[in-house]
Design goal:
Elements (H helix, E strand, L loop, with lengths): L19 E5 L4 H15 L9 E4 L7 H8 L4 E5 L12 H17 L3 E5 L24 H4 L3 E7 L3 E2 L5 E13 L8 E8 L4 E7 L7 H16 L1 E3 H10 L5 H13 L4 E4 L2 E3 L12
Parallel strand pairs: 1-2, 1-3, 3-4
Antiparallel strand pairs: 5-7, 6-7, 7-8, 8-9, 10-12, 11-12
Helix pairs in contact: 2-3
Amino acid sequence: MVLGKDILNCITIDEKPNKILYYDIENGPKITRNRLVYLKNFFGAENKDLENLTIVYDFNKKNIKKELELSENYDVVVLDSYRRFLEGEENSSEITDRFYNEFLKPLKDNEVSLAILQNLNKRSLSDISNDDLLNMFRGSSDIVAQITQAFLLFKGPEESSKNNNKLAFDVTVLHKKNRLGVPTKNFRLKILKDDTIRQTVFLPLEFKGLLTPAARAYDKIVDLLHANGSLTRAEFVKKLINSNVCSEPSVDNYLKHLISVGRIIKEKYGVYTLPKEQTGVKNYV
């Protein structure tokens, strides 16, 4: 958004905003500045390209009027993350309604666009129906009721390289509330963080919705073979358990299923690899 560029055909930016204010109360300057360097390297951006971005690392809950006067000078205001801006508990409708009326609503009335990051409840996706996904937002139900657009972001298990200088994981983004009827689509990305070149890379993936635990394990096994060429059962067990994908007793069943449908093959006893037509350069980590 800062650069005024579309992102991998997943998010369309119609025009470059004049000024963006990012309240980063969640991470702090050290983490955020480092992330900006990695993103700038991926997009080929320079410092002058970020002149319309202002990042602040505090928010005066006792003086909302002062923060409102600052925010009203921007086209877009980002809050990261929502609960840290509240003077009280996020489960309290009284607290969230007060913050909405004192800070969010005046900005909306002044045609300032708001992007609010909010954590989800830690619940198993296997227990959640598609219609119930909005209930995964933490805090009072009034929070979701007050917004016009809601996106849910789900991060998959992380996979590190042997020397820990590269990290890969999948991200699925669902658009679950669209009061304005904005044309959007759900999407899925592979995120690659490479410390050797200080860059974060975004690769578009086929969108498959929210996968079941078994489907996520199948994809993880195939990704591991793309990255490593071949693996033994013991190596699979170690990597899958370390990534919190599945337990050891499930590994054999997953391997047998993938062999039966032709997604992987046995190279020799106890060693698994991809069929020749599936092998390619996919060395993510």
